[in-house]
Amino acid sequence: MGLAALCPGTFDPVTNGHLDIIERASRLFDPVVVAVLENQSKRHLFTVEERVGMLKEALHDVERVEIGSFSGLLVDYAKERRIKAIVKGLRAVTDFDYELQMAQMNSQMGGIETFFVSTSPQWSYLSSSLIKEIAMFGGDVSKLVPAHVAERLAERFAAERGE
Q: Where are the beta strands (DSSP E) in 107-160?
Protein backbone atom coordinates (compact mmCIF):
# COMPACT_ATOMS: atom_id res chain seq x y z
CA MET A 1 0.00 0.00 0.00
CA GLY A 2 1.12 3.51 -0.81
CA LEU A 3 -0.27 6.90 0.08
CA ALA A 4 -4.02 6.72 0.70
CA ALA A 5 -6.42 9.48 -0.32
CA LEU A 6 -10.06 10.33 0.26
CA CYS A 7 -12.47 11.34 -2.51
CA PRO A 8 -15.40 12.69 -0.49
CA GLY A 9 -18.83 13.72 -1.74
CA THR A 10 -22.55 13.19 -1.53
CA PHE A 11 -22.67 11.42 -4.92
CA ASP A 12 -26.45 11.91 -5.16
CA PRO A 13 -26.16 10.49 -7.79
CA VAL A 14 -22.68 9.60 -8.97
CA THR A 15 -21.89 11.11 -12.38
CA ASN A 16 -19.35 10.34 -15.07
CA GLY A 17 -17.46 13.41 -13.84
CA HIS A 18 -17.14 11.90 -10.35
CA LEU A 19 -15.97 8.60 -11.83
CA ASP A 20 -13.36 10.36 -13.97
CA ILE A 21 -11.82 12.05 -10.90
CA ILE A 22 -11.88 8.82 -8.85
CA GLU A 23 -10.33 6.74 -11.64
CA ARG A 24 -7.58 9.30 -12.20
CA ALA A 25 -6.88 9.49 -8.45
CA SER A 26 -6.65 5.68 -8.32
CA ARG A 27 -3.62 5.84 -10.63
CA LEU A 28 -1.79 8.06 -8.12
CA PHE A 29 -2.96 6.94 -4.67
CA ASP A 30 -3.29 3.52 -3.05
CA PRO A 31 -5.98 3.14 -1.92
CA VAL A 32 -8.50 5.80 -2.87
CA VAL A 33 -11.31 5.77 -0.34
CA VAL A 34 -14.51 7.13 -1.84
CA ALA A 35 -16.27 8.61 1.18
CA VAL A 36 -20.01 9.12 0.80
CA LEU A 37 -21.31 11.86 3.09
CA GLU A 38 -24.29 10.93 5.22
CA ASN A 39 -25.81 14.35 5.90
CA GLN A 40 -29.05 14.11 7.89
CA SER A 41 -29.84 17.83 7.46
CA LYS A 42 -29.96 17.57 3.67
CA ARG A 43 -32.68 15.84 1.65
CA HIS A 44 -31.13 13.33 -0.70
CA LEU A 45 -32.80 11.54 -3.58
CA PHE A 46 -31.00 8.30 -2.70
CA THR A 47 -30.14 6.89 0.71
CA VAL A 48 -26.50 6.58 1.69
CA GLU A 49 -26.76 2.81 1.19
CA GLU A 50 -28.11 3.30 -2.34
CA ARG A 51 -25.36 5.79 -3.17
CA VAL A 52 -22.67 3.44 -1.84
CA GLY A 53 -24.20 0.60 -3.86
CA MET A 54 -24.26 2.63 -7.08
CA LEU A 55 -20.62 3.61 -6.56
CA LYS A 56 -19.61 0.00 -5.90
CA GLU A 57 -21.33 -1.08 -9.09
CA ALA A 58 -19.76 1.73 -11.12
CA LEU A 59 -16.25 1.18 -9.73
CA HIS A 60 -16.20 -2.60 -9.37
CA ASP A 61 -13.36 -3.01 -11.87
CA VAL A 62 -11.22 -0.05 -10.75
CA GLU A 63 -8.25 -1.22 -8.71
CA ARG A 64 -7.20 0.37 -5.42
CA VAL A 65 -10.62 1.90 -4.72
CA GLU A 66 -12.59 1.37 -1.52
CA ILE A 67 -16.03 2.79 -0.83
CA GLY A 68 -17.37 3.82 2.55
CA SER A 69 -19.62 6.36 4.18
CA PHE A 70 -19.31 8.83 7.01
CA SER A 71 -21.23 11.47 8.90
CA GLY A 72 -19.77 14.37 10.78
CA LEU A 73 -16.44 15.96 9.94
CA LEU A 74 -14.32 14.69 7.08
CA VAL A 75 -11.15 15.31 9.12
CA ASP A 76 -12.42 12.93 11.81
CA TYR A 77 -13.15 10.24 9.21
CA ALA A 78 -9.69 10.77 7.72
CA LYS A 79 -8.03 10.47 11.15
CA GLU A 80 -9.90 7.23 11.86
CA ARG A 81 -8.63 5.82 8.56
CA ARG A 82 -5.13 7.36 8.95
CA ILE A 83 -5.50 9.19 5.64
CA LYS A 84 -3.56 12.41 5.09
CA ALA A 85 -4.73 13.40 1.59
CA ILE A 86 -8.00 14.50 0.02
CA VAL A 87 -8.62 14.61 -3.73
CA LYS A 88 -11.25 17.02 -5.03
CA GLY A 89 -12.35 17.72 -8.58
CA LEU A 90 -12.74 21.31 -9.74
CA ARG A 91 -15.12 22.24 -12.54
CA ALA A 92 -14.82 26.03 -12.48
CA VAL A 93 -13.48 29.01 -10.53
CA THR A 94 -16.62 28.99 -8.40
CA ASP A 95 -15.73 25.47 -7.19
CA PHE A 96 -12.23 26.67 -6.33
CA ASP A 97 -13.44 29.46 -4.03
CA TYR A 98 -15.45 27.05 -1.89
CA GLU A 99 -13.00 24.13 -2.06
CA LEU A 100 -9.98 26.27 -1.16
CA GLN A 101 -11.71 27.40 2.02
CA MET A 102 -12.55 23.77 2.89
CA ALA A 103 -8.98 22.66 2.11
CA GLN A 104 -7.53 25.30 4.37
CA MET A 105 -9.92 24.37 7.19
CA ASN A 106 -9.13 20.64 6.81
CA SER A 107 -5.42 21.44 6.91
CA GLN A 108 -5.83 23.59 10.01
CA MET A 109 -8.04 21.08 11.84
CA GLY A 110 -6.40 17.83 10.85
CA GLY A 111 -3.15 18.43 8.98
CA ILE A 112 -4.73 16.98 5.84
CA GLU A 113 -3.52 18.08 2.43
CA THR A 114 -6.00 18.59 -0.42
CA PHE A 115 -5.08 17.89 -4.02
CA PHE A 116 -7.22 19.59 -6.65
CA VAL A 117 -7.77 17.85 -9.97
CA SER A 118 -9.30 19.76 -12.84
CA THR A 119 -12.30 18.04 -14.31
CA SER A 120 -11.92 16.65 -17.81
CA PRO A 121 -13.48 19.15 -20.25
CA GLN A 122 -16.07 16.61 -21.41
CA TRP A 123 -17.55 16.53 -17.88
CA SER A 124 -16.91 20.09 -16.65
CA TYR A 125 -20.56 21.12 -16.88
CA LEU A 126 -21.93 18.15 -14.89
CA SER A 127 -23.41 18.30 -11.43
CA SER A 128 -25.58 15.85 -9.55
CA SER A 129 -28.21 18.57 -9.13
CA LEU A 130 -28.39 19.17 -12.87
CA ILE A 131 -28.59 15.42 -13.54
CA LYS A 132 -31.51 15.08 -11.09
CA GLU A 133 -33.35 18.00 -12.67
CA ILE A 134 -33.00 16.58 -16.18
CA ALA A 135 -34.08 13.10 -15.02
CA MET A 136 -37.01 14.51 -13.04
CA PHE A 137 -38.45 15.92 -16.28
CA GLY A 138 -37.83 12.69 -18.18
CA GLY A 139 -34.70 13.87 -19.97
CA ASP A 140 -32.03 11.47 -21.19
CA VAL A 141 -29.06 11.31 -18.80
CA SER A 142 -27.66 8.06 -20.19
CA LYS A 143 -24.48 9.69 -21.50
CA LEU A 144 -23.86 11.56 -18.23
CA VAL A 145 -24.07 8.78 -15.65
CA PRO A 146 -23.45 5.01 -15.66
CA ALA A 147 -26.33 3.01 -17.17
CA HIS A 148 -27.41 1.54 -13.81
CA VAL A 149 -27.59 5.04 -12.32
CA ALA A 150 -29.72 6.30 -15.24
CA GLU A 151 -32.08 3.37 -14.65
CA ARG A 152 -32.36 4.08 -10.93
CA LEU A 153 -33.03 7.76 -11.59
CA ALA A 154 -35.81 6.90 -14.04
CA GLU A 155 -37.32 4.41 -11.56
CA ARG A 156 -37.15 6.86 -8.66
CA PHE A 157 -38.78 9.71 -10.53
CA ALA A 158 -41.43 7.43 -12.04
CA ALA A 159 -42.27 6.27 -8.51
CA GLU A 160 -42.49 9.86 -7.29
CA ARG A 161 -44.90 10.62 -10.15
CA GLY A 162 -46.94 7.55 -9.24
CA GLU A 163 -46.22 5.72 -12.49
A: 113-118
Whether residue 148 lies in the annotated active site:
no
Catalytic annotation on 91? yes
From the list 64, 81, 84, 91, the catalytic residue is 91
pLDDT tens-digit map of 105-142:
999 999 999 999 999 999 999 999 999 999 999 999 99
Q: Is 44 a catalytic residue?
A: no
- pTM: predicted TM-score of the whole model, two decimal places: 0.94
Which residue in the list 44, 51, 128, 132 is annotated as catalytic?
Answer: 128
